[in-house]
TrEMBL record:
Keywords: Oxidoreductase, Pyruvate, Thiamine pyrophosphate
Pfam families: E1_dh
Annotated protein name in UniProt: Pyruvate dehydrogenase E1 component alpha subunit
A GO MF label: pyruvate dehydrogenase (acetyl-transferring) activity
EC number in record: 1.1.1.-
Co-factor requirement: thiamine diphosphate
Species whose genome carries this gene: Streptococcus merionis
Leader peptide range in chain numbering: none
Amino acid sequence: MTTISKEKHLDMFLKMQRIRDVDMTLNKLVRRNFVQGMTHFSVGEEAAAVGAMAGLTYDDIIFSTHRGHGHCIAKDMDLNKMMAELAGKATGVSKGRGGSMHLADIEKGNYGTNGIVGGGFALATGAALTQQYTGTDNVVIAFSGDGATNEGSFHESVNMAATWKLPVIFFITNNRYGISMDIAKATNTPHLYTRAEAYGIPGHYVEDGNDVLAVYEKMQEIIEYVRGGNGPAIIEVQSYRWFGHSTADAGVYRTKEEVDEWKKKDPIKKYRTYLTENKIATDEELDAIVAQVKQEVQDAVEFAQSSPDPDLSVAFEDVWVD
Ligand SMILES: Cc1ncc(C[n+]2csc(CCOP(=O)(O)OP(=O)(O)O)c2C)c(N)n1
Ligand SMILES: [Mg+2]
């Protein structure tokens, strides 16, 4: 087991709490038309995002999904600029032109959330080819849900990455549903990581994707392998989204009992128990982090609300790089 410093533990706890607080806050603000356009929350999946990225540097690159607020926060996106983007303001990370599914921060290696399901696989494979071609030892992560792995782009990208031994990790957060479609009704294999075998690459599984340390440990192993020039890998982690697919979801495809069962497996509570029981942190220290995050999120909302709308003249900026 890797030794994790107290500082790192607290940072991981803070990021999980930040993801939770941002999406819980947005869930309330959506009803007040704060969010421009559609948005998807990842409450319940915090451990997957933070565990996946705790071992990366800013030179390592990620491609996120439509459910990407957590990925952005785990990759240290500035909270004010993120909130401003969600509100469609000029001070946003994408100058207010993108919203929830166009959050990017290239300097920190975040190549963006993406409204096209399966849209990130090929982009990540291309970015990994750049790393190989230019001789860096950076790794690239292509995040996806379970449903997205039935897109042709997944199979084409994994095949190419495997054949060319590209430094890309296909990270699947299996929350059991693609909108209302149960993965078991859409896929003839119980586990998605086993698809790795068909491409001759390693496939890994974390059964408790709500255990941030289990995800982090597994990713440490995978990152080392991929950074070492051995080619790509697939990892599937099991988790669950507490809220509906998006802000428009009646939730008729799953029972309240199922949702309640998963709420009992709260990744933040689990981590808090670990930290206090192992005397890594006290309840007071963790409460202080929760309070700090609450303040940060409130400040970010106020920053967004008091920011100006973008000028129409910026609509066609940054669409072409010569
Ligand atoms: C190419 C494409 N097809 C369909 C959609 C509509 N859509 C948005 S999210 C989604 C389900 C994705 O499921 P999954 O990959 O499991 O991710 P999750 O929402 O569970 O995080 C679909 C079908 C889309 N955005 N893009
Ligand atoms: Mg899913």
